[in-house]
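User: Here's a protein and a ligand (nicotinamide-adenine-dinucleotide). What would the complex look like?
Assistant: Let me lay out the input and then the predicted complex.
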Amino acid sequence: MKKKQIAILGSTGSIGTQALQVIEEHPDRYEVYALTANNRVEELIGQARQFRPEAVVIANEQCYPRLKEALADLPIKVYAGADAISQVVESGPIDIVLTAMVGYAGLRPTMNAIRAGKTIALANKETMVVAGELINSLARQYHTPILPVDSEHSAIFQCLEAQNPVEKLILTASGGPFRTFSKQQLAHVTKEQALKHPNWSMGAKITIDSASMMNKGFEVIEAKWLFGVRPEQIEVVVHPQSVIHSMVEFEDGAVKAQLGVPDMRLPIQYAFSFPQRLPSSFGRLDFMQCHELTFEAPDTDRFRNLALAYEALHQGGNMPCIVNAANEVAVAAFLADRLSFLGMSEVIEQTMQRVAFVATPSYEDYVATDAEARRMAEELLATPGQGCLHR
Ligand code: NAD
Ligand code: MG
């Protein structure tokens, strides 16, 4: 059997390293063709020496000399810079591109990989949030499959039946570390508290997004584009145990759910192996330990971001792109102690009101919108006297 050649964008991150574990479990099926990272050059060197890809790329060009020197004894091509990441995905032998980098930076390489006909294993949800319509039209034009890695979307994908349309998609949400906090308490939470997710260990940005529920808002948008449903057909249910990863309701009222331990290696592996399932050594669900599965409605008053994401979804156009850019700025500011937890929603909402709306954006419009929304959000951060903006 010919081994599938995999490129991992963001191989040093949480998803990236788990993807390498999946590949290690199936050396007869998968081979690493390319690895890319942002800054963590020593980790990238270690991965390259172990997995012997054809190519490695580091986004930060200052790290290039170190990377080049450390791999000089191996026949590995070494590149640096964002353009190189966007180009490496087009390499002939690659079968699957796992987009495990974080944020808007994933958009351009994902578009290139789609144009080159590479199957996309989509972890980088921001790409779908920013430009879902454009990504879908490219994928149709180039007949490129996009397979979900996000656990909720993988769950839905595993529940779908080709012949039967869905009535509703039910996205489960853990509720994050602040599920039971009052608004008063939320006003004073710290980044250390926000970085402690109860059920999942993930990169810093998505962990903050999970605490603020922006992650769930993004997943609603991601679900619309991945599964072609209307916003009213997507429901969010808070399920603190994270055992049910999401559900599909069909037209006769039947509901299918996908359950499992919270372990991203399963959805990563399924995106690689689809339509097959492969054996795995990952943990198994023990029902005797699942004493209760509970469900509650999300509270968009305490978690404004979820409401803002729904609003962006309804408005469409470049509005989700604006929300994504403002959120990236707000999360970075929160992590740098420049902004309070609730201040993040303020910055996002005000940025949404100030950046020009474009109903049917082109790629160039998304690029301009992203830059303008970042500039606006930074300006709001720098404006004194913005109430709860500052701690
Ligand atoms: P992470 O922060 O742990 O890792 C990010 C990776 O991307 C690193 O390898 C980093 O070097 C690289 N990277 C970051 N910025 C970059 C840039 N500008 N250019 C090039 N490379 C860059 O993040 P993560 O938790 O692995 O998440 C990755 C993506 O997967 C995100 O879009 C996230 O929303 C999504 N996702 C993650 C999880 C999870 O369990 N971690 C679950 C679902 C979806
Ligand atoms: Mg998810």
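Summary: The radius of gyration is 21 Å.
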